[in-house]
Amino acid sequence: MGIKIITDSTAGLPKSLIAKYDIKVASLNVIFGKESLRELDIMNEEFYERIERENIIPTSSQPSVQELLDLFIGAIKEGNKVVAIFLSSKMSGTFQTSQLVKNMVLEEYPDAEIEILESNSNSMELGFAVLEAARAAFDGKNLDEVVVCAKDTISKGKFIFAPASLKYLEKGGRIGKASALLGNIFKIIPILTVENGQVIIANKVISLKKAITTIIDIFTKDIEKYGFGGAVVHHINCEEQAKKIADVLKQITGKLISIVPIGPVIGVHVGPGAVGIAYFTQKLQS
Fold first, then answer.
1. Which of 72, 121, 186, 249 could make an S-S bridge to 194, C-beta 3.0–4.6 Å?
2. Cα angle: 207, vertex 208, 212; to 5 degrees
3. What is the C-alpha separation between 283 and 258, in angstroms, rounded?
4. What is the CB neighbour count within 10 angstroms for residue 126?
5. b vs e for 22-59, b when ≥16 Cβ sit within 10 Å of the residue's Cβ?
6. Do 211 and 238 form a contact (C-beta atoms < 8 A)?
7. Residue 170 binned pLDDT confidence (cut-offs 50, 70, 90)
């Protein structure tokens, strides 16, 4: 009997950590026309090759009710309590559906203890909340303590990233064709972040090189002011670039920094070549 942590595939958690803490992951889906594919079953390289080949931007959908139900009931049947942490409700209906699933579970198992949290983000900004909760559960913390740990990490997280070009932002309808044309001519790169559960443009710079420098500067100022909790470098099909950024962060923090690919559901909006840093601080950022 213990506490089981459940999350969704956009967290991008490395398989080794999922296995270590026995985290259960519900997969979102990407949809090409009438074909629906589980995000967990797709390789990034194949995904973007298909987009280029078919010249189409797929849509995405939340995990099925049945998949969520199976994960929740599986944990409860084993005698566990559940803490589930999902991506922002402004990005997906996963959080809302999980609330419905919780009610379904409680009808059958009225004594089940289930807490569902919204991370207000995605990728490893979500992933860090999941990991810190899993570590707390692993260390024997009670349900309330695990929830507090997750919420604390959520409140101190940040995700800043940049696309290599405006191509996928345009394809996905996030920016207009005129803006994309001018941006590509002048090599304007938006620096994106997640605020109040939504992706926003935090800044615009000239060139991806300048965008990377700016992202590292933001990270450095934050950890100098608020302390270093943890960080990963995110990327989409540009691991060598990510390694260079991780090396810089290692010099800044004195810690090894993991490199984590961004999956298709989130990555389709920015495309190959995108890089960023997801991290959390020791103190609350103001």
1. 121
2. 125
3. 22
4. 31
5. ebbbbbbbbeeeeeebebeebebeebbebbeeeeebbe
6. no
7. low
Which is nearest to 236 in space by CA: 216, 261, 258? Answer: 261
pLDDT digits (tens, 9 = 90+) for 61-93: 999 999 999 999 999 999 999 999 999 999 999
Name the band, by pLDDT with cuts 50, 70 and 90, for residue 57.
Answer: confident
Residue 26 · residue 71 · CB < 8 Å: yes
Place of tokens 């090189």: 209
Average pLDDT score, the chain: 92
Q: Write the CB contacts of 284 (distance below 8 Å, at least 6 apart in sequence).
A: 155, 156, 226
Query: Is the full-model pTM beyond 0.70?
Result: yes
Report whether 265 contacts 9 (CB < 8 A).
Answer: yes
DSSP assignment of 91-134 equals T-SHHHHHHHHHHHHHHH-TT--EEEEE-SS-HHHHHHHHHHHH
Decide: 123 and 234 in contact? Cβ < 8 Å: yes
245, 276 contact by CB (below 8 A): no
**DSSP states of 15-64:** HHHHHHHT-EEEPPEEEETTEEEEGGG--HHHHHHHHHHHT---EEEPPP
Q: Amino acid identity of 261? A: P
pLDDT at 180: 43
What's the Cα-to-Cα distance from 41 to each of 47, 79, 104, 268, rounded to whole Å? 10, 29, 27, 16
